[in-house]
Design goal:
Length: 319
């Protein structure tokens, strides 16, 4: 008799379905069991409000977590950057697979790069983090741009450029790669220009904390380097007491000497959305060997950033 299919809870967006489908195939391979996708509509999917207004953190996650806790699905796939930093009672992130490209990208008309955009170019993004860094970059490079808040899926956002309403939009490289649209990218933004959201490009596979056999099976998809990196990034975010709608960027990358990974560098940024003030710091140290060490790295950098005035820049959060 064939084993019962595992039920994977996913949001309905094209991107969520694409990344959940990829995870479903991988889980099928490690468990030998079929996996079926269960589509769940979340508040973040149906609300037309700006993300910062509807509370940012967790709006895409709560319905999936409720389905997990009720036993309607066996596990769920989240974009890690949507996941609140606080651990959820009764659930566990069983795997963080190897990360996709963490960078942000530009999709602009006439195949332009960020530096080629016309004076006064209108650039769409839903993220205060991107606005802060794009505006800061423009200020220091003598560019005139206007950042325009937008929402919607990949089609909607790129549609604003195709229709001529906007000159460019900024999206996550990982999302475009996962839906097979990376050929529409006109510029990859260096992380020195725009630091990504904490956890950007990474997925979290979550299941009930008491399902030991499923946790063990899903654990085979875990990438230890990705996990320590995103743990440090999210620890920084949590220590700044910021939700995922706050203007915080963070990236932990591994510094290798040939084939040997020697150290991890964690960079963080927080700024006002107009780009007039940015606090940007980094720290480099041994690759954390434990979850606690990764958390400590994030907390230490956050403490330094707060000492440099980061707290005052967090005031633009949704109340």
């Amino acid at each position: 008799m064939t084993e019962k299919a595992l039920r994977l809870g996913t949001r309905r967006s094209k991107l969520a379905m694409a990344q959940s489908g990829q995870v479903a195939d991988a889980v099928s391979q490690v468990t030998g069991r079929p996996v079926e996708l269960v589509e769940i509509t979340t508040f973040g999917d149906v609300s037309r409000e700006q993300l910062a207004q509807i509370g940012g953190t967790g709006v895409f996650v709560a319905a999936l977590r409720d389905a997990l806790l009720r036993g309607e699905v066996d596990f769920a796939v989240h974009s890690l950057k949507d996941l609140p930093t606080a651990q959820h009672e009764g659930l566990v992130v069983a795997a963080v697979p190897e990360r996709e490209d963490p960078r942000d990208v530009v999709v602009a008309r006439d195949a332009r790069k960020l530096t080629d955009l016309p004076r006064g170019a209108r650039i769409g993004t839903g993220a205060p983090r991107r606005m802060a860094q794009l505006n800061a970059y423009a200020r220091t490079h003598g560019m005139e741009i206007e950042t325009v808040p937008i929402r919607g899926n990949v089609d909607t956002r790129i549609g604003y450029v195709r229709s001529g309403e906007l000159d460019a939009v900024v999206l996550a490289a990982a999302g475009l790669n996962r839906v097979g649209r990376s050929d529409e990218v006109t510029d990859f933004l260096s992380v020195d220009t725009v630091l990504p959201a904490p956890g950007q490009g990474a997925l979290a596979i979550e299941c009930a904390a008491d399902n030991a056999s499923l946790i063990a099976a899903l654990g085979e998809l875990d990438d230890p380097f990705t996990r320590v990196a995103v743990t440090a990034e999210r620890s920084l975010l949590a220590a700044l007491e910021a939700g995922c709608s706050a203007p915080v960027g963070a990236l932990a990358d591994l510094l290798a000497d040939g084939q040997t990974v020697k150290e991890m560098r964690l960079r963080g940024v927080v700024g006002t959305t107009d780009g007039s003030t940015l606090v940007q710091l980094s720290t480099t140290g041994p690759v954390p060997e434990t979850h606690e060490a990764a958390l400590a790295l994030g907390r230490e950098l956050a403490t330094e950033m707060l000492a440099q005035g980061a707290a005052g820049l967090m005031g633009e959060r949704a109340h």
